[in-house]
Amino acid sequence: MHDASSMPTAQDVLDFWFLPPGDPAHGTQRDVWFRKDAAFDAQVAARFGAAIGQALSGGLREWDALGAQGALARILVLDQFTRNARRDTPGAFAGDALALAAAQQLVAGGAHLGLIPVQRLFAYLPFEHAENAAMQAESVALFTALAQRHPGFDGVLDYAHRHRGVIARFGRFPHRNAILGRSSTAEEALYLEQPGSGF
């Protein structure tokens, strides 16, 4: 049982993911974010398991009152930490709807523009993770604007285009089918045999 004092703060989440301000690597893109790393996944689960559980049950909304940084911290817990701590299980995607709602609110109010570029990347990923054509269009628009204003985000934009293409073709992400207990169509099965189909 976790007592309140052991619950991570929004700043704990931001410092863990982006490294603390003052760290030479703060504000840079980190390799560990987008590769499978069992040790890193275990670290996320150990440090933030309680926060993930609370966020998934609709909690941590008080972080949003801290402004864009606080909202981003809750998005990270729902959209990224779930994918690390609950990799290859349905729980990896359990926070997606809540993360998307938080991201939509952040973008609609314009507060996302106050985040540094690498933080904006994670404010936009819930749109890219949505199995929804309109959200995919929004994802590409947001990542296009980010890549146009800041160097080093062309690869991220390419991924946004690829995700949109998959949703345009299948209406869902076939690489989630097995994890979520969904049957793949013949066309999806063929697609899943291609390298890179699982992102």
Automatic annotation (TrEMBL):
SUPFAM superfamilies this protein is in?
TPR-like
Query: InterPro entries annotated for this entry?
Result: DUF924 (IPR010323), TPR-like_helical_dom_sf (IPR011990)
Q: Which branch of life, at top level?
A: Bacteria
The protein, known as: DUF924 domain-containing protein
Q: Which organism is it from?
A: Massilia glaciei
